[in-house]
Structures are given as C-alpha cells and as structure tokens.
Design a protein that fits this description.
Blueprint (H helix, E strand, L loop, with lengths): L6 E8 L9 H18 L2 E7 L3 E8 L5 H19 L15 E4 L5 H9 L5
Antiparallel strand pairs: 1-3, 1-4, 2-3
C-alpha cells in the first residue's frame, strides 16, 4: 500500500495590531489548542514558534487540504477559545491580523525551515 503524500508548509501570521499578548498562560494554551487541532485533522506540526506578537508554524498537511482552510482552522480555533478563556484578549478588535505568510518547502529544505523557526531570534 502506498503511503499518502504530504506537503510541508511554513505559515507565519501576527497578532492584530502587533500586540505582544502571546505570553505565559496564553502562549501555553495556544500551543495545546494547535497540537489538538493538528492531531484531529491528521496534520503534523514539525516546528512551532510562538513569539509574543506573531507565530511561525511548519506543518505537514495532505496535498488536498486547501491552504486558506488550514490557516482558517488554526486562527479560528485559537481566537475562539483564547478569547473565551482570557477576557483580556476581548479588548482587541481581532486576535489575529487578517494577513498571513505561506510558502512550501520546495525552495528550501525542510531542515532549513525547521532551523529557522527554532532559532530564538524572533523574540
């Protein structure tokens, strides 16, 4: 039986108004939420860096999963649960900015992207 192929994608998106709110318990809860979501969807997080005002995510997904729906799933679930659990986040007009960066690992090796995300220079 042939193994289902995967694509490697690097995502980056920021907090609305670049507020530095992804710290402490909020950061830990975001990590938990995204781990659960990726497991539920059959995706594999290869690297995740949560900086105070933005996130880098290196993810294995099925080639049939549309990029915009993958991003929507991560941003949507996080926004809903974090705003419910941390009332201070409700003061922001939106938890996430509407934009995001995405690229496949085609131009760079998966290892190079993982090293970039795991480098603490984002803080």
């Amino acid at each position: 039986m042939r193994k289902e192929s995967q694509t490697y994608n690097h995502y980056n998106h920021g907090v609305g108004l670049r507020k530095k709110v992804l710290v402490g318990e909020i950061r830990d809860r975001l990590f938990e939420l995204w781990q659960a979501l990726s497991s539920e969807k059959g995706w594999h997080i290869r690297a995740l860096e949560i900086a105070p005002d933005h996130v880098h995510l290196f993810l294995e997904v099925k080639p049939t999963d549309p990029i915009h729906l993958v991003v929507k799933a991560f941003k949507g679930r996080a926004s809903r649960y974090l705003r419910q659990e941390f009332p201070s986040l409700r003061k922001l007009p939106s938890l996430w900015s509407r934009s995001y960066f995405f690229c496949t690992a085609g131009n760079a090796s998966a290892e190079a992207i993982q090293n970039y995300i795991n480098d603490p220079h984002h803080w």
